[in-house]
Write a structure and sequence with these properties.
CATH class: Alpha Beta
Strand order of the largest sheet: 7-6-5-4-3-2-1-8
Strand content: 15-25%
Largest sheet: 8 strands, parallel
Helix content: 25-40%
Number of domains: 1
CATH architecture: Alpha-Beta Barrel
Shape: globular
Number of strands: 8
CATH superfamily: Aldolase class I
CATH topology: TIM Barrel
Order of helices and strands: EHEHEHEHEHEHHEHEH
Number of helices: 9
Length: 218
């Protein structure tokens, strides 16, 4: 499989609301044979972006809810119906109690959504790996949103995370997150044994997001 480049739009003003689809359309023009590029738009824009772009779309979050009396909840079943292919869970900005997380992962797997679960420590990574998600995104929280990649400041901890996850779940691939903002960061993450990266602000907030992404992927 190609390494995954997962772009989290969060709710950055450059990527939210009416700006989500235009941004996605710009990014879909960036062609690459080396990587799989996936975007995670803000939740209110998911359906529009999934229908209006050729890029694979993941949700930034999913709740423990079916279709029914679940006011304000994000259901894995509904995500599947509107063309969303996967989900990010347990991001440091949207933590989920472990027992609830376990049930959500199972629900998402039932709906055949690709599951990316975030972990902010090796202890948490060990617990998450036991859930056997498709991807585990390792992100030291103090580096999220910054311009210094974990691959530069804490490369050893990425190696340890990869080894730890491999021992527990062979099917789970590790992504590197937190401060990834250059081609060199991506290359270093892959050298450390990860299978891709989770990128937040670097692309949506770039002066020319498509040009920036093209440089990342060259």
């Amino acid at each position: 499989m190609k390494p995954l480049i997962l772009l989290n739009f969060k709710t950055y003003p450059e990527a939210a609301g009416t700006k989500a689809l235009p941004l996605a359309k710009k990014l879909e023009k960036v062609r690459t044979k080396k990587y799989e590029v996936v975007i995670a738009p803000s939740l209110p824009t998911l359906e529009e972006v999934a229908a209006g772009t050729s890029l694979t779309v993941y949700s930034q979050h999913t709740d423990l809810a079916g279709l029914g009396a679940f006011t304000g909840k994000i259901s894995a079943q509904e995500l599947k119906q509107i063309g969303v292919k996967g989900t990010i869970l347990n991001h440091s900005e949207r933590k989920i109690p472990f027992l609830i997380l376990k049930k959500i992962v199972a629900d998402c797997k039932k709906q055949k959504l690709v599951v990316v679960v975030c972990a902010s420590s090796l202890l948490e990574a060990k617990k998450v790996a036991e859930l056997k998600p498709d991807y585990l995104a390792y992100e030291p929280p103090e580096l999220i949103g910054g311009d210094i990649s974990v691959t530069k400041t804490k490369p050893d901890i990425i190696l340890r995370a990869v080894e730890l996850v491999k021992k527990i779940s062979h099917k789970t691939k590790v992504l590197c997150g937190a401060g990834v903002h250059s081609r060199e960061d991506i290359q270093k993450a892959l050298q450390l044994g990860t299978k891709g990266v989770l990128i937040g602000h670097a692309v949506p907030k770039a002066k020319d997001p498509a040009k920036f992404l093209k440089e990342l992927l060259r």
